[in-house]
Amino acid sequence: MHNIEKSDERVRSLSRRGLITLAAASAGVLVAGCAQTPRDGGASSAAAPSDPNAASNKKKKNPYKDDIKIAYVAHDLSTPNNQAWLEGIQRECASWSNIDIQSFNGESSAETQTQIMADVINQGFDAVILQCSDGTALAPSVKEAEEKGIPVITLNLDAYTTHSALVMAVDYDAGRMAADKIAEAINKKGDVAIIQGVPGLTRTDNLEQGFRDTIGKYPDIKIVDAQSASFEKAKAITVMNSFLQSYPDIKAVFAINDAMAEGAALAAESANKKGQIVIWGADGEKDALAMIESGDMSGTIYTNSWDEGSTAAKIALLMVGSEYSYTVLSETPKVIMEPIVVTAETVSSIAENDRW
Q: Helices marked H in 14-134 — which ranges?
């Protein structure tokens, strides 16, 4: 199921380039085309099937004429990913003066996001685009929004309740791709470590699981440690310094996101080990691409986050402009963005205007 040919074919079928069909489809076709069973190594985004008879106050509006308010509720608005998603949302809606995009900073706090969601619901926003700090904690807020006719589209970090859509980068497969590249770079033997994100989030857990499952196929490679840096570059420097002290012969590090990979690279450089340790991330932010070009990082799995934000906005407008209701869903439909494996040999293929 996880061989690269089948995975890449599936990803392309749900990529941005296929969204024209999605946007033109009826709500029924959207549900049929995007709902899918969970991948190995990942939990379903649906906590339980929705009740088709559940109450919903969904009201159809014309997204190109009526006044529309869309809330973007970020996990942490200061991060490159969240900024790029917001810019993608704004770009998609820029041509229509009737569409108002308002952004909110969750400050990496589920409690803060829950309060923001309550305010957004009370203020009668027409749609919400949300990156969940905690999929379980945000589930009641997402369900309440949907019940009040406000479609919720999650970005990368999902809510553990059925809702209108999830737009995400590849997760399990990104970990798998990075693992194979790391194994190749260290001649299929040696000690490796993982810098984790926030445990319990579906995307980050799936990234790590894809990495672990694939590295497990190489008998001479050993995962010697795994520590969380909570997605933060500064914390990743501390974690990487710990790895360097405890495992002086470490050959490679996989960081769950690029910010942490960048921190690991800075720590390696400070220890005079630049280029001696294979360091991979996942996301594809421009600072990571620059570090790959300079030889500080070995690679990343790139996703165009501007397109990801734009895709979420397209779906939000589709939902607002239809009679579609989440109550017909048995699980959350997913759109998975196309990944690109980036190394020193391929980084030049990412054009400057695609670097977020």
A: 19-24, 27-34, 80-93, 110-122
